[in-house]
Amino acid sequence: MSSSSAPAMAGLVRVRLICSTVAVVVIIIAAIVGEFTALPAARTAAAAATVVFMLLEAVALTRGGHIMLAFCGVATVGTLLLHPHGGAVVMHGLNSAAFVIGLFAAVSLLRDAAETSPLIQRCGDVMVRQPPGRRYTVLSVGSHLIAVILNFGVLTLLGVMVQRGNTLDAAGGDQRIADIRKQRMMTALLQGFAMMTVWSPLSVSFAVMQAAIPGVDLAHLLPVQGVLTVLLLLLGWAIDRLTFPPGLRGTITTPLPKPAVPPSWAPMGQLVLLVGSVITAVLGMAWLLDIRPVISAMVVVPLSAWLWLAVQAWRSSPLLAPVLATRRLARRLEISMPAFRTEFAVLGGATFFGAVAAAYLTPSTIADLLAHVALPPILLTIALVWGMMVAARYGVPQIVSATLIGNGLSGLAAHGIHPLVLTSGLMGAWALSACTTPVGAATLSIARQSGVSTKVVGRDWNGRFVLSGSVVVAVWMVVLSLMV
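RE: above sequence
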């Protein structure tokens, strides 16, 4: 490339990035407008903006993103040619993908604000400097809370802190002690993060389930998922205690390096208040305006991110804080939205593919399936939920399986399976699968930071937890089916 053409090429790249950013903003705005007005034009705009973004960023996608787009292309052509309502099916798939992309994009703005917040740094410092008896509990709960606002970013933030504090010198020169500490702390981070997807209205799993199984009452779903989350976190704690009993931990109680002044627990209280405020605002808006939480999140989260940035800027320049926050948010939009191209392609593409594939599972098909399978509907549902976990273990993204199962079986109410039971089971299985799937961003991040393979993270560190959790989810679904 000649020196004279380099500036022109850079200019074209800049234009592409700006257009991609605008496309994501259009997705969010169109999704919000469509929810409030039910205008077909808004849904069309969201679908069109999704296609435009993928076309613009296709050249920069990773291999995984290209594979997902190829599957979506084949599914689109096949559906338009073979399905009697192909156009409507494809449009439904695009709108489902737009909702997931919109939520992920909106939540990422809160992550941008959190990454520069002294509060998050102080919370991380408190969590990694705990004695063995409290280490798993504090790290898993803390990771769980921070994940609500940082999403995958919590694994990098706290993972770096864990690795920095867990040195061989801190373990008294004993590599075995350092390895045990690493396993316990990194497992706690992963499990705490994963369990966030069981209940959080800001998680991708929540958005996918809302799109795949409409009509589930939010007032019933959140308390149910809250209880399931607590059960799974307690299960993780119990397995940690059994794997590393007090007798064993008594031999490795050398504390991690402590600061000169013990860290205060006040930042953790402030974090709980922050997370609670954002979630309350999201749910409050959804309830007051009778809209889906994924839509209210697209409104509340960007505003919360702007306010958080303004508070950070207030310390240096109170008068210019709103302007500085607006400028920084705009810059982050241009940087982070195109940078999420692969995530958008995989998440949106998987949602699209699952929604389109589910269109071929008609009620008559489900009825025939139930007639030929000698299982009660609740046991068949549990088997499919477990099947999603097995598929995830061998590389099939949960979002594909969950969308396919959710769309295909959402009509099982006529056969005795309440949508709440199906939704709860799928969200629980999604969270557990995040601890074992070899292609998941969470397991890849933990494996990379720990210097081990994803097989070690999924099978050796989390195998007992996931297998036990699958039993808990199954029992939970049976009990829930008897109550609703």
